[in-house]
Every structure is written in structure tokens, then in C-alpha cells.
Amino acid sequence: MASRGGPRAAGTDGSDFQHRERVASHYQMSVSLKSEIKKLIYTHVVIWLLLLAQMCVGHLKLLPHDQVAMPYQWEYPYLLSILPSLLGLLSFPRNNISYLVLSMISTGLFSVAPLIYGAMEMFPMAQQLYRHGKAYRFIFGFSAVSVMYLVVVVAAQVHGWQLYYSKKLLDSWFTSTQEKKKK
């Protein structure tokens, strides 16, 4: 190696250290996946707050029932879907695999299952609306079944992507722990 003003070692231009400055790919992937999952969790929180607001307005009778309908039965267990999101956020700071696995399992139980039940619960009303054009429940002038089906479709996509990215993040974390064990 060369001193500050002295000759440089033969065969090097001083840039041979750059290969050591790259971040391992699984660490890069972990950071980007955490970012994507956080965006999905924040989207889920917005959906959750809208459903909570609709339930509060319906039960507390803040607005007439012709403006905001009473909630469907699937919305009550869906309120528990905030727990998996919180577990997911808790798993990020220390790459806690246990919390992430619990988050994934409880997402299926508290988020996806109520959405499936909700789609089945609202299907007869959607069929009646489609065949006869009759709706009996409304949310600000729109058919409640149409609005809630839109919520179900968006929430299902959010939770589906959340599970997909969580699985990829889990794989990334396992890769990093396996490499640490090899060393």
C-alpha cells in the first residue's frame, strides 16, 4: 500500500476496496420488504379506522340509518385484525421471527377469515341488488353492499400482499441467520 504522498503499490489504482462496501442482498431485501409491509399496514389501519367509524356511527345513531347502515356481522371480528398488524410492526426493530410468524398466522385468522365470511354473508344482498336493483341498506346514498364489497376487495388485496411480503421477509431473515451460523 502507499503512504500519504508516497508511491502506490504496483497493480492497484486504489479502487480495489469497493467490493467490500456493498451491503449483502438479504439485508437490502429486508429493508425494502419492511418498507412495503409498513405501507400495507398503514393502508390496513386506514381501512380499519373507516370500519370502526362506520360501526360507531351506526351503533351510536349519530346519523340516521338511511345515511349510515348498521354494520354487517363480519365487521365485528374484523376489528381484531389490528392485532396482527401491531405484531408485524413489533417484529421489525430486532428482526423478531416469532412475532412475524404470529403476525402471519393471526392475519389469516383475524383478517382474511372475516373477509371471506363477509363476502359470503353479503352475497345474497348483492345478488338481490344485481337482479332486482333493490338495496335496503345505504351508506351516504350508496348501496351498503356495494360499498362493503369494495372494502372487502381492497382489504383482501392489502392482506394478501402483506402475507406475501411477510413470507419473503421471513425467508430473508432465515438467510441472514443461516449465514451467521456458518461463520
Automatic annotation (TrEMBL):
GO CC term (a single one): endoplasmic reticulum membrane
InterPro entries recorded: Jagunal
Main location as per UniProt: endoplasmic reticulum
Localisation per UniProt entry: Endoplasmic reticulum membrane
Record's bilayer topology term: Multi-pass membrane protein
A Pfam family of this chain: Jagunal
Keywords: Endoplasmic reticulum, Membrane, Transmembrane, Transmembrane helix
Source organism superkingdom: Eukaryota
GO BP, sorted A to Z: endoplasmic reticulum organization; granulocyte colony-stimulating factor signaling pathway; vesicle-mediated transport
Sequence intervals crossing the membrane: 40-62, 99-118, 138-158
Family: Belongs to the jagunal family.
PANTHER family linked to this entry: PROTEIN JAGUNAL HOMOLOG 1
This protein's name: Protein jagunal homolog 1
Organism whose genome encodes this protein: Chionis minor
Gene name as annotated: Jagn1
